[in-house]
Amino acid sequence: MSDTNLLDVGDYDDPAFADANRLLGEQQFAAVVEYVRGLGPAARPPTLNVGGVAAVVLRARPLAESFFRRALAADPGFAQTYNNLALFLRVDGRLAEAEQVFHAGLRVAPDEPVMRMSLANLLWLQDRHLEAEAALRELVRRHPEDAEARFKLGGLLLTLGRFEEGWPFYEARYEPTRPGAPEPINFGCPQWRGEPLAGRSILVWYEQGHGDEIQFCRYVPLLKAMGPAKVTVVCKPALAPLLATLDGVDRLVPAEGVHEIETHDYWTYLLSLPYLMGTRLETIPAQVPYLSALPERRERWAQLIPKDGFRVGLAWKGNPELANDKNRSLPDLSVLRPLWDVPGVTFVSLQKGVAEEEAADPPAGQPLLNLGRHFQDFGDSAALIEALDLVISVDTAPAHLAGALGRPCFCLTPAEGLDFRWLLERSDSPWYPTLTLFRRPLGATWDAVTPKVAEALGEAVRRSARAPAS
């Protein structure tokens, strides 16, 4: 049950709870439900909470709600029930009820961090950003040691464009106490905190996804301009041929070669550079292109696409392992059907791995040149994108790549789980001057967005020298 977290009940002295919790840990969800049902009125609140979680997993939603509500009626002072019931209501789409339950729970347990975080997430989900900020600030006030709370607050402030406030909190992302934080890496030198770099050496360590590396590698030339004798950049292997075109890099090391790196004077995370360089909304370094395709690849890929017509690259799915992928990726290629009504366009798939099979067998009436399957790395992606007239992509690496290459791109962004880099409401991106954002409204499907994308595509074709003769 990804949206519900049973709060720690400690060593609860109830054999029934221990049995139900053991079955839950073994993922015997049907057995949990039957066991709790069999207890009848004797079931106590912790055990009823376990039964509710199992029922949600089994999609037995009325039963799950009955378990949670029985637990709440039996003991209104048991904080865990409020959290679980409220999260159940949130997933069920009953947001106003969920908010009421969260507030009731916080009156019972005002210092419970998971519940206050859940409330902040609920408010954020509804675009009630200032209320979400207040909830997160209260959480940080009560629990200043909570790295996840500070990281979340940082992400929200960055989304609101308040970079000076947001970057310091965002640095909590790698604190060891934050859930899921990677093990600290021993670089044999101190982490850079803004000290003078003239004549020194600094190692820039990659982090997060491919799109993040593409977006924030723009800071490496600025770092080099601070006078270090050597800037070493470690990157994901698939990005190495692309980042080889980046200014300011003295040595580029794919991640599998890190054992060969010598000791430096300092090291830094890539996404710490905006903070350390004091980036504000109005000072984002947005000069594009700052990356390019290697000449030999550019020539090879240009030969694989039609010379006539308006050429559009498509990326409709991102990495399915990303937590928010269900919101940012399209269900399938058919969602983009309105685009094919625009005359004079040749569509090219940029999908590699994910959705590659769909690209090879597109829906009837949606012809697609399937070139992404031939990509070996992002150097190939860059060469193809440079030969296209436009990229249309969901919030995934090809959108960042098009922006970094200075190529026109329509980027489709979701309301839920929106990444901070896209800010709010605006249709442009201060990070990428060539991007146009098409935002899916909260609660809407992508069908509310694609007709607008098709209209903008038609206008782009009409403005282009490649427009078909009338």
TrEMBL record:
Keywords: TPR repeat. Transmembrane segments: none annotated. The keyword Ubl conjugation does not apply. The keyword NAD does not apply. PROSITE patterns: TPR (PS50005). TPR repeats lie at residues 79-112. This is Tetratricopeptide repeat protein. It comes from Phenylobacterium terrae.
